[in-house]
Hints:
The two termini are 14 Å apart. Strand 9 (202-208) and strand 10 form a beta hairpin. 39% of the residues lie in helices and 20% in strands. The protein is built from 15 helices and 14 strands.
Amino acid sequence: MKVLIINCGSSSIKYQLFDTEADRTLAKGITARIGEKSSFIMHQARGEELREEMSIPSHQKGIELMVGLLIDPTHGVLHSISEISAVGHRTVHGGNIFVQSVLITAEVIAKIEECVPLAPLHNPANLLGIREAQRILPDIPHVAVFDTAFHQTMPPKAYLYALPYEHYKTFKIRRYGFHGTSCRHVSQRAASLLMTPLETLKMVICHLGNGVTVAAVDGGKSVDTSMGFTPAEGLMMGTRSGDLDPGVIFYLHRQLGFSVDRIDDLVNRESGLFGVSGTSNDMRDIIEKANQGNERCTLAIEMYAYRLKKCIAAYAAALGGPDALVFTAGVGENSWIIRRKICEGLEFLGVHLDGVRNQEVSGTEALISTQESRVQVLVIPTNEEQMIALDTINVVSLKV
């Protein structure tokens, strides 16, 4: 069964064609900078990569280009678009409406639209991708897979804010969490690698990319997570500040005259690693400059690791002691330096890193703790697309 996975953003469409029977990716790519002069498409298939700058004025054009490349005689992997059995759509916010992946219907689209105020930057783009893909591929099932669904198992004590309760009941202001599809995939892989039933495992998962999520997972279910009402809550990230005293927002507005939009830009796009280092939001660049003596880059790394260490310890307490600590996503999978800095000082929890093994591992599944470590420390590359594909198959199978 061939499943097309679409991740539609405001100015890009990421895609991947997954063969579930062979358990492999046949093709993947991105149409980027849609509507801009510098728009381009990048497509990978058959061990080759094609990158071409061209006019992509709309998402409709982007999806048409994607389909065209998938069936292209030279660069494609399909004889006909009819070989695609289903489409899985990454959908960011399902509010407290969607607790699992669902077959897309008119009613489901209406419910996703209801969640637009909760994710005004993401859900409109996701809906656009759904509608355009349904227009071009109308005769096959489409499935929505929600980033927030995995965290809907959090108890009220974890997801509620200490605001007047009416604000939750009326306006749905609560903690939702994100990167759920990644956390779900990684938790399942951790159980497999440790040869332990998922239902008996307690783990802290660190999804460390440009966005950062830490999740406490008990028996395969999320019991707490660091992102909240929006992805801005929680840890220091590539360009997001993470947790911030609300008084800072009031000060920026009242004393410095910052508008709401200006504060939004500051907190989400100008802060985090980028804001502290003053150079980059890419951890690789920051580590390189820190090694060259850049004090602000060194400070950014120390802040990043320190806050993560505190969060891991807090979630270890929420779990009553974890069995595993898992690192995933770009930084988590590839930066042994960051993994080491985070684990240093967590020995009291039973975390003992194998320094040699940790330094050897980059982008592959591996156990990087010592034999004496009570908490098993793992590196597991995330694969959200595979998870979306599997969910899509399951939903479609239930429909049949």
